[in-house]
Amino acid sequence: MVDLQRQYQHIKPEIDAGIQEVIDSCAFINGPVVKAFQNDLEAYLGVKHVIPCANGTDALQVSMMALDLQPGDEVITASFTFIATAEVIALLKLTPVLVEVDPDTFNIDPDAIRRAITPKTKAIVPVHLFGQCAPMEKILEIAREHDLFVIEDNCQAIGSDYIFDDGSRKKAGTIGHMGCTSFFPSKNLGCYGDGGAVFTDDDDLAARLRVIVNHGMTVRYYHDIIGVNSRLDSIQAAVLKVKLKHLDEYAAKRRAAADFYDRALAGHPKLRIPVRYPKSTHVFHQYTLITRDLDRKGLQDFLASREIPAMIYYPVPLHLQKAYIDPRYKEGDFPVTEGLAKQVISLPMHTELDEEQLAQITSSVLEFINR
To answer: FRET label pair with 136: which of 10, 77, 120, 151, CA 20 to 30 Å apart?
Structure first.
C-alpha cells in the first residue's frame, strides 16, 4: 500500500545526513532539530504554534487534556474513522458521541452533529478522512452557536487546503481551536517510527500543551498540572524536516495517481470513484472506492493473487466495536456508515506509483469485476 523503500532512496542523502547529525550530537530528546522542524512546520501551515509529541493518538489526548474537560463531558465525532479518535475520549472518561457521515466524502455530517448536541456537549472532533477536509465552515458555525471547542483530527490530510466561501484558504488542522496529526510512517508526512503534533493559534492553549506533553512540568521537577510523557525524538524530527520539503510534491504525485485511477475506473456500474469535495483540496492519503453488487472480499483476494494489496478502511464502525458497545447505539442506527463499512476498498496510494503499476492495478480490478 505504501512504498517507503523507494521513497527513501530518492531522499537518501538528505535523510542519512540528518540522522547522522543527530547521532553525532547525541541530542536524542528535544534536540535542536526538533525545534527546527517545529519552526518549519509552523511556517508551512501558517500557524502560530506546533507542539510536537510522540504520536497522533497522544496529540488527540493532550488536546483534550488542555481543554480541562471533565468526566462525563460529551465529545462528538464520526463513527466511520480509526479507533484512536474515540479511544482517547474514552480513556479520559469523557463520553464519545458518535454520529453519521456524508455518503459522498465520508466526512462527518454537520446535520448529524446538530442533532447530537446536548447540554453536556463540550467539543467536536471532525476527522479529515482519507485526505480531504470535513465541512469546516458549517462545523465552526455550529461550534460558535453552542460555545463548543473544535479539535481537528488531521492525521490523514496534512497539506490539504480548506477553501472558505470568500475564497480564502487555510491548511487542514489550522481551522479549529486545535488540530492534531500523526507522523506514522505510512502518513503523507511520515517519519521512520512514531510521531505526532498539535497545531494551534491560541497562545494560552499552546503554553498549556507544552506543559502537558512534558509531565506537566514548567520548571524542572516542579509539576503544576497532570501531564504525560509525549515527545517527538530528534531522529524522527530529522526525518520529518527533510520530508516536509517534499510534502507538496508528494501530494501532487498522489493526485496524479488518483487521476489515473479515476480515468480508468470512472463510470463502471459496480464501482464509485472517490468524490472530491469542492471546498477542499485532496491529498489522497487513501484512494477509496465504493463497491456496488460486488464481492469485495473476492476482489481483495483476486488482487492479492496478483501481488496487489488492497485494504478495507474500516470494516467495523466505531459504534459496533466490542470495546465501544453502548446502549445508545445499535446496528442500523447509522445506515451510511454501516453501508460504507461493507462496501469500501482502498487501492495502493503512495508517491512512488508509476504508470505501469497503475495500469496493472486498474486492469486487474476491471478484469475481476467484468468477468
So the answer is: 120
Nearest to 350 by CA among 236, 265, 251, 277: 251
- Size (the chain), residues: 371
Buried b (16+ CB within 10 A) or exposed e, 209-236: bbbbbbebbeeeeeeeeebbebbbbbbb
- In the chain, where the domains are located: 4-244, 247-370
pLDDT of residue 10: 97
Q: pLDDT tens for residues 316-343?
A: 999 999 998 889 999 999 999 999 999 9
Give the Cα separation of 169 and 109 in Å (integer): 21
pLDDT tens per residue across span 81-114: 999 999 999 999 999 999 999 999 999 999 999 9
Give the residue from 31, 50, 51 showing the smallest Cα distance to 42. 50
Same fold, 4-244 and 247-370: no
Q: What angle (nearest 5°) sits at the alpha carbon of residue 65, between those of residues 61 and 69?
A: 120
Cell of 2: 505504501
Mean pLDDT to the nearest integer, 302-319: 97
Q: Give the single-character DSSP code of 185.
A: T
Spell out the CATH class of 247-370.
alpha beta
Q: Looking at residue 233, what is its pLDDT?
A: 96
Q: How far apart are CA 75 and CA 64, in angstroms?
A: 10
Which stretches of the chain are assigned E, i.e. beta strand?
49-53, 74-78, 95-99, 121-125, 149-153, 161-163, 169-171, 178-182, 196-200, 217-219, 222-223, 271-272, 287-291, 344-347
What DSSP character marks residue 81?
S
Cross-strand pairs, 311: 346
